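Q: Convert this sequence to structure tokens.
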Amino acid sequence: MSEQMDEAEQIDQASADRLKLHLPHSARVYDYFLGGKTNFAVDRDVAEHLLEAFPGFKTAAQSNRMWMHRAARYVAERGVTQFLDIGTGIPTSPNLHEVVQEVEPDARIVYADNDPIVLAHSRALLVSSLTGKTAYLEADVTDPQAILDSPEVRETLDLSQPVALSLVGVFHYLPDDKKPYELVQQLVDALAPGSYLIFSHCTPDFAPAMWERAIQVYKADGGDAQVRSREEVTRFFAGLELVEPGVEVPYRWHPDDETERLVDNGEFTNVSCSLWVGVAKKP
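A:
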């Protein structure tokens, strides 16, 4: 823990104020769950409070990350060479561009996140393959048009061609009053036929009492969130063609050997993962 604190917190006070490091942020809380070092005392406090309410958060984060790699690889293997990853979070290798550029070396990726500290670490994101390209945009998913109209998107992606839109572990931070379904629809509407939506979302379906406590804790610590049922998550894919097996828990979506190992030893269960995930194609 001390090594983690030293590395993350070697930032002067002026920079800390500019980056609002006195406030917790979901990207840094998630980084903590993944065992990363780019988080601060305020983020760790929130994370530990959440773990007291729902001990599965670290496992859920791990299964979500592993699934994202499989989903991105699946889409790249079907010839999609453009990716828009919104809510990318703190760089954790392998990043999405590293995964897809193994399949398609000329793939082009735009990352977007609303935490300014992600921008401070964006050099790690911007190390692309020689023939591909990556860009980073500081933006919020609640303003889709600003993302779509940004120079980073316009100069990196060709929206007249298929794009994979990655919204992984983002929308459970948007309660209904933020109009989450409309936000996803606005982003999908801007994409060409043949595009894909890669989407994951926390769910209370397997442990409702624990999730109710976790949401109360998160709100008490200054955050906002709303977990959703399988039916509610499925609505995010309206008008799209879901890839088999449809909306599923992450470890059952095209599992690999490592996923199967974690299932077999009891680490990955419905309760410990508590996510619905899916990949869908725009007709």
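The chain has a mean pLDDT of 88.
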